[in-house]
UniProtKB/TrEMBL annotation:
Keywords: Oxidoreductase. Residues 249-270 are annotated as: Disordered. Residues 26-237 form the Aldehyde dehydrogenase domain. One of its GO terms (molecular function) is oxidoreductase activity. This is Aldehyde dehydrogenase family protein. It comes from Saccharopolyspora montiporae. Pfam families: Aldedh. Transmembrane segments: none annotated. It comes from the Bacteria. Coiled coil: none annotated. InterPro entries: Ald_DH/histidinol_DH, Ald_DH_N, Aldehyde_DH_dom.
Length: 289
């Protein structure tokens, strides 16, 4: 028998994802994550309000390049994210199952569904303009040509209890149409933070997606009140927090989505793609008959 002492397992400390880097929280706070049977599993960063502000600054810096990129290129990047996620699907399933949120089979199915949802939105990236835009007649010898454009910086509160599929379902449509995002996740942080590692190696510009973990009630109001956030998706907030966020967002006149309870396993349709865009219109003289 070997006399070597038993090796201690090195617990991982998950950090935030801001501007393509992985900083620890400015506050230095962490939140422990335990397995279903109570064993310590890992530490996750507890983001601060300054981390939110840093993430919004990073998203604004990346917006010009990502929003002006060819739609086909954005679709290719989303497809690459799906490829990278599928290559690590076993890790996602293990992290989700270890914390007891779902069974191993359910966790594996959640990872596979998230991959499929990314591929679905990747295919829509270069079709949104044709489907949501159009030409219509207006009074006088003119035509009105309209086309969707990204809303800008999207602040997203990730839905809880929906696994990786729910996170991808709220993030992917915002990215597909050219928004840059600040995603705040509270429940099941490990798969979300591992997803941030996937994003960092997918070719998406640094700052296009920034991932923070911490209590939604603490970080959500800072995101809602930030004047440089253009669109707020409070999918993960309860009704009381949603009302508070709407009041905070009113000062900067930002758009606040009001998503109903969703079955993310169902066909998503175009609702979120439409909600993440604004419409720009130009009048053009009509040809003489």
């Amino acid at each position: 028998m070997s006399d070597a002492p038993e090796r201690l397992t090195v617990a991982k400390t998950y950090t935030l994802h801001i501007a393509g880097a992985f900083p620890r929280s400015e506050s230095g706070r962490v939140r422990p994550v335990h397995t279903a049977d109570g064993r310590f599993l890992a530490n996750t960063a507890h983001a601060s309000r300054k981390d939110v502000r840093d993430a919004v600054t990073a998203a604004r810096g990346a917006f010009g390049g990502w929003s002006r990129a060819e739609a086909q290129h954005r679709g290719q990047v989303l497809h690459r994210i799906a490829e990278m996620l599928e290559g690590r699907s076993g890790q996602f399933a293990a992290e989700s199952a270890a914390t007891g949120h779902r069974s191993p089979d359910e966790a594996a199915g959640d990872a596979a569904a998230a991959v499929d949802r990314l591929v679905w939105y990747a295919g829509w990236a270069d079709k949104v303009t044709a489907v949501l835009g159009g030409i219509r007649a207006v009074p006088g010898p003119q035509l009105c040509v309209s086309a969707p454009k990204p809303a800008g910086i999207a602040g997203i509160l990730a839905p809880g209890g929906t696994g990786l599929l729910g996170v991808v379902s709220v993030l992917a449509p915002a990215l597909a149409v050219g928004n840059t995002c600040v995603l705040v996740a509270d429940e099941e942080p490990l798969p979300v933070l591992t997803f941030a590692e996937v994003l960092a190696t997918s070719g998406i510009p640094p700052g296009a997606v920034n991932v923070l973990t911490g209590p939604l009630a603490e970080l959500g109001p800072t995101l809602a009140e930030h004047a440089d956030v253009d669109l707020l998706d409070p999918s993960g907030a309860d009704p009381e927090l949603r009302a508070q966020l709407a009041r905070g967002a009113a000062a900067s006149a930002k758009r606040v989505l009001d998503p109903p309870p969703e079955d993310f396993s169902a066909d998503p349709g175009l609702r979120r793609l439409r909600a993440c865009t604004e419409r720009t219109s130009v009048r053009h003289p009509a040809a003489a008959p």
